[in-house]
Amino acid sequence: MEPVLNKPVSTWLKWNDEFDGDLSEWNQSTFIDDARHRTGNQYLKLDGTIDLNQVGHKVPGRWAARYDLYRDKCQFIRNGHLVMKGHAVKAQNLYRENFMDYTGTVHPYGDWQLFTSWLTCKEHFGPGSILEVRVNLENQQMRGHRWNFWLMPVIGNAYDADISSAEIDSPEVENPSRVAGSTFGGKALMKVVAGSAGDTPNGIVDLLKLGIDIRKGWHTFTTVWNHDGSLDFLCDGILCNQDPRHVTATSEIIMAREMNSGVKNTTNKWENNSTGPKVPADPGLTGQSVILDVDLMEADEVIVDYVRVYDILDSKKEDPDVDLGELSIDEQIILLIKKYDDTAEQLNSKDSHIDDLTRQMDALLDEIEELKKKATSDQSILPETLILLRQALERAML
């Protein structure tokens, strides 16, 4: 297996899911598995019921769906592929009310309960990785129902001024098929979303201009996360965008289909005013209202063939057991950090030989300390390398 790239890179396959079995590699079933299942529904209790003691419990903002029920209808294996779709139940929605927008169109969110898919990979990844997903988006049709393949830092705030931890999107895609004249389905969000640290410029890529029509057939999205934290975003081996900044925080892969209500959070408790929102535009890509295409829910689906993660090997070595003496101090420390992480993961498994693995981790830390002592003024350790080391130690303590 080799990643789909625009230039030769030495790699080895670290982790993959070909979706030929079950979804055991992912957290995906309950609130408890992943707190983000409550995205946009912050007043839900863990058992899925509403907390009526909360003020403004109608839930403000753009998120129109929940992620806690109907997992078997929203994300499942079919013929060796992962199918991701939504599910609509025609029943009163206690979290929403119907509202009318400025055109007089009624958005009946109070009449429907909406659910969609969300999977979080149990493995964590960092710089020095290539992350790849092969996907078919032909049947993505609904306005406001997008598909995302993205990464979020395990520790730290993705949206503060520190660029080392940030959201990485590659891609986010929406195809509002019922919007007349729209070619938005041919575009993809491929960028770093970093809040006050700033997003990657030109983050919405017009793939049609690159000769790629993701509305037809299978396509491969590849994120090259270089050792220094910089990022290259590719589709079908064509470079689409780049971010040279040092995003270094260890992160988790999320695949999701988010539903938009077509409105922003407002200064009111919720957006369900009788006059409706004056500006229905929303940060969620096209900002369209998913409820207007609820009749397409059953037909709307995204199919994923595989997710693969490769380690990027230094050009001086053929395999992960390279002679460390051939590399710079930073490269040596990064490789030792990877070994430390792998050993820590083994330590967390039930069948581990705890004493042996603990000794291995201590020995790796001793090697790293010796390398730090070797560093001279003309070969100092990069700040991002020290960040990687700190994060590895934090993970081992969890």
Describe this structure in words.
The chain is of the alpha+beta class. It folds into 2 domains: 11-311, Sandwich (Jelly Rolls); 320-397, no CATH class. Helices cover 15% and strands 28% of the residues. The protein has helices at residues 71-74, 329-347, 354-374, 383-397; strands at 11-17, 26-27, 75-78, 81-85, 87-89, 99-100, 106-107, 113-115, 118-125, 129-136, 145-153, 167-173, 187-193, 204-206, 218-225, 231-235, 238-243, 251-259, 301-312. Strands 1, 3, 4, 10, 15, 16, 17 and 19 form an 8-stranded antiparallel β-sheet that branches. A 7-stranded antiparallel β-sheet has the order 2-9-18-11-12-13-14, with no helix packed on it. A two-stranded antiparallel sheet has the order 5-8. Helix 2 runs antiparallel to helix 3 (354-374) and helix 2 (329-347) runs parallel beside helix 4. The longest helix is centred in the C-terminal third of the chain and has 21 residues, at 354-374. It is elongated, with a radius of gyration of 22 Å. It starts with 10 loop residues before the first strand and ends with a helix.
